[in-house]
Write a structure and sequence with these properties.
By secondary structure, the protein is an alpha+beta fold. The chain is about 60% helix and about 10% strand.
Length: about 650
């Protein structure tokens, strides 16, 4: 049975990773290469000015519809949360969204039977309907897919492994398209067209990406399983008013969002125009495959390198160093001209920082959850984390509009080749590919420098303050019936960690030693296992996984805190086996920590255990107070006051 469980977990991880691969391959094709098809293949030179006007209108339709779709994303999230089916909340939308999106993508990579020139108005109407349909269903599968990790497993270790597999699949999917686009287009094209291929080749490319995306959606439907639980039942519906209220009052979230919106729009423009550079400046579209290989390797290396870099230099320094490297790459790209070697070096330097900056933003975005929780008393986790994909979509919408406009202005449309692009066209192209994005990235960097102050140290202080107040809203949370039961029942308080007992006032942590956190005891641990001291509910968890707050079945509140200064470790060396809202049994393992990691980081691994509502107890005596103990030993018998 154990082997079957492990097999199922591995199958689920691989299916989820493959879906991430197909999902990002679809997104990259839609945001980067579809506009290339529109500008270079949908019309011919003979269509002349009419073709250019149609390209401009199509580009504007895409731009407007992407922004319309952004406005309904929160409603899509609510629809998913409130979906009830035998297959769960998420899988139906992933499969249906993947199916509809794939079919429409394949259709969009055609001229709809010549309708684009035979009846342009009808083509534009059908195009708009198909595009918004595809975009909405894409959002359903996008939100459903990335929201699914908590539903796959309640085990935080399994979640981390699944997320890691997904991130690798996502990185490969986003970059593999650049590797295969021209080989596939060339393979299925009848006419080479100076290496650009023809409409038939581009349709084959779009169809293959659509099939991969659809099959990956089916893989999630067949080989993953949502764990249903009362913990996942949606209790409240989020409205648009709630979204803007949450985003508007969290100043760090707002400044970070503004910075990232500028940054991601700028790099999306340059990334989307790289293919045009290879096609219309270098005149070597087939060599674009080399850049795809380079970026795929760089992407994986950068993701792996981020944790040690952030630890050595801090996230803020990693951000600024990354921006410098990016700007150097942009400057070199600007003067690379016809040199393929310089272009590849410049493009590589431009791409290296992108995964690092993405992870810096993601970490600060995650930290802003606790920032908002401390400031306003509400933990708006889902809404906060929804900001990043929203901004990425906005950046893609802006990039699509700019790319279409640039292609028309630079004369890179309707069968044009590198020899057809004039010096003026090249100047316009370079201003849009390098000048505008540089200004946007610099503006975002300035905002980050001046306004985004939330770093690892401030976040650690925020978490520390949350530890001190974690129980305040819970004292009134025990129902009258529970209080009545508590008056006739006692709670056996068990030792949560094996080791050596010591008085709490002797620990080297002022807030605990002074009794500010409540009465309790400390243990110098003999191993790294933390167990539940009683049966009850997990009321508080922390992103650093170094502490946990519990409420017993009769209302006693207890905090178990592992180590002194371990907040600064950001969860390294800690594994959490339960989540907020879980009901646990006495003796159940809650957290596992690795003492050598704590010691290597220069911290004390002493475990502190306190009672957060001692005023509600008739008596609070711990016995024994010293000596060796084993988890599960009784150290107190507690009773609530009548």
């Amino acid at each position: 049975m154990e082997n079957e469980t492990k097999s199922q977990k591995m199958k689920s991880r691989l299916a989820y990773s493959f879906r991430a691969f197909g999902h990002d391959a679809f997104f990259t094709t839609l945001s980067t290469y579809f506009i290339m098809f529109v500008t270079s293949q949908l019309f011919t030179k003979s269509d002349g000015a009419q073709g250019a006007r149609m390209i401009g209108i199509i580009t504007m339709i895409i731009f407007i519809l992407r922004f319309v779709e952004l406005a309904i994303d929160p409603l899509i999230g609510n629809a998913i949360d409130n979906t009830q089916s035998r297959w769960g909340h998420f899988k139906p939308w992933i499969v249906v969204g993947g199916t509809v999106g794939s079919v429409v993508l394949a259709i969009l990579f055609t001229n709809m039977g010549g309708l684009n020139t035979a009846n342009p108005i009808l083509y534009l109407i059908i195009f708009a309907i198909l595009y918004i349909t595809m975009d909405v269903f894409y959002s359903f599968k996008d939100v459903g897919f990335w929201s699914m990790i908590p539903a796959i497993s309640f085990d935080s270790v399994e979640r981390e492994k699944t997320a890691t597999y997904a991130r690798v699949g996502s990185t490969l999917g986003a970059n593999i398209v650049a590797i295969v686009v021209m080989p596939l287009v060339g393979l299925f094209s009848v006419e080479s067209n100076h290496g650009q291929g023809d409409a038939r080749g581009w349709f084959a490319f779009g169809l293959i990406i659509a099939l991969v995306s659809w099959i990956s959606a089916l893989a999630v439907g067949l080989w993953t399983r949502e764990n249903d639980s009362q913990l996942r039942k949606n209790k409240e519906k989020t409205t648009m008013r709630d979204v803007f209220k949450v985003l508007g009052r969290n100043d760090q979230l707002m400044w970070l969002s503004l910075m990232y919106g500028l940054y991601t729009s700028g790099i999306a423009i340059t990334n989307a125009l790289e293919f045009y550079y290879f096609t219309y400046i270098l005149g070597k579209p087939k060599e674009f495959t080399y850049l795809g290989f380079i970026n795929a390797v760089i992407g994986i290396i950068a993701v792996v390198a981020f944790p040690p870099l952030a630890k050595k230099f801090s996230r803020r320094k990693v951000f600024f160093l990354s921006i410098i490297v990016m700007l150097v790459g942009m400057a070199l790209f600007t003067v690379a001209g016809q040199s393929l070697a310089l272009v590849l070096i410049a493009a590589g330097l431009f791409y290296v920082p992108q995964p690092l900056i993405f992870l810096v933003v993601l970490m600060i975005l995650s930290d802003s959850v606790e920032y908002g929780q401390l400031k306003f008393g509400n933990r708006d986790e889902s809404l906060t984390l929804s900001v990043r994909p929203l901004l990425d979509k906005m950046g893609g919408a802006i990039a699509n509009g700019i790319v279409g406009l640039t292609a028309v202005m630079a004369g890179m449309t309707a069968g044009a080749t590198a020899s057809d692009v004039t010096g003026h066209g090249q100047l316009v192209f370079k201003l849009m590919m390098f000048g505008l994005p540089t200004l946007m990235v610099l503006a975002g960097t300035y905002i980050f420098f001046k306004k985004v102050t939330l770093d690892e140290t401030e976040h650690a202080e925020i978490v520390k303050q949350l530890e001190q107040t974690w129980h305040e809203h819970l004292d009134s949370g025990v129902a009258p019936a529970d209080l009545q039961a508590a008056s006739v029942a006692t709670t056996d308080f068990l030792v949560p960690v094996s080791g050596t007992l010591q008085p709490l006032d002797q620990v080297n942590e002022r807030t605990f030693a002074s009794g500010q956190m409540g009465p309790g005891f400390a243990i110098k641990p003999a191993d790294g296992e933390v167990h539940a001291p009683f049966s009850g509910t997990v009321e508080a968890t922390f992103p650093t996984r170094h502490a946990i707050g519990l409420r017993s079945d009769n209302g006693i509140l207890a905090l178990i805190h592992v180590g002194i200064g371990t907040i600064m470790m950001d969860g390294t060396g800690f594994v959490q086996y339960v989540n907020r809202g879980d009901h646990v049994e006495a003796g159940q393992e809650l957290i596992e920590f690795w003492a050598p990691a704590i010691q290597q980081a220069g911290h004390d691994d002493t475990v502190m255990v306190v009672i957060a509502n001692p005023e509600k107890l008739t008596d609070l005596t711990f016995d024994p107070t010293s000596g060796e103990v084993v988890h599960g030993d009784q150290i107190a018998q507690l009773r609530l006051k009548d």
